[in-house]
Design a protein that fits this description.
The protein has a 5-stranded parallel beta sheet with strand order 3-2-1-4-5, sandwiched between helices. Strands 9-6-10-11 form a 4-stranded parallel beta sheet. It is α/β, with parallel strands linked by helices and 239 residues long. The chain has 9 helices and 11 strands. Helix 1 (8-17) links the parallel strand 1 and strand 2.
Amino acid sequence: MRAVSLVPSLTEAVAVTLPGVLVGATDWCTHPAGLDVVRVGGTKNPATDRIAALAPDLVIANEEENREPDLAALRDAGIEVLVTEVRDVPQALRELARVLSACGARTRPRWLDEAEEAWSAPRPPDRRRTAVVPVWRRPWMVLGRDTFAGDVLARLGVDHLYTAHRDRYPKVTAQELRAAAPDLVVLPDEPYRFTAGDGPEAFPGLPCALVSGRHLTWYGPSLAEAPRVLSGALRAARR
C-alpha cells in the first residue's frame, strides 16, 4: 500500500499506525516528528502532478481541509481518493477507523481504543462556561456552527456562543466578541498562532485560555490525551 495524506492529523494517524505506508504528505504535516516522505504542497494547494508521480494507491483527504477541484484532478488521473468528514468526536473516531482500514490496518491501534475510552466519559467540569473561540486574526474569525473543535469544547463543559451562526467560521469583530460577554476566550495556537502576547490584549477583563490547536482541532493520536490537556488549559484561564 502506498498512500498520500493531505490532512495533517490523518498523516499522524497513519504514520504511527502503519509505518512505511505514507509516501507523501503536505508541508503542514508536522507529526510525527521526523516524518520522511515527499512533501506535496499545502492542504489548499497540493501539487497534484507531484502526487500523481508518486503513484499512490490512495490519497486521504477531508471535505473541509481540501478543495474539491484538487481532489477531482487526482480522480481524473486515476487515483483513488478517500474523503473524510469530521464534525464531532464520535464521527472522528469512526473516520479514523475507516482511514486506517483503507490503508491496510488489520486491527485497531491501541491509541484509537485509548482515545475512545478518554472521550467516553471525560471528567465533568464544576460548571459549564460560555466562550468565543477565535481561529484567525486580521480579520477575526471564530468557531461557528457544526465544527469538530466546537464539539470537543462542548464535551469539556464549554459552550461557544456562535454555535448557531449560519457560517461555520464567521467573521466577527473583536468589539462584537467582547460585547457577547463570554465567560472566557479560547485562543488556540493554530491555524492562527495566538500567544500570550498576541490575542489576549484584545479582550481586556476576560479570562483567556491559550490552548494547543493540535489537541483542539486534530483527530488522531492526540485525541487520547486531548481531554486532559485541554481541561487543564481551560481551568488555568484567569482574568
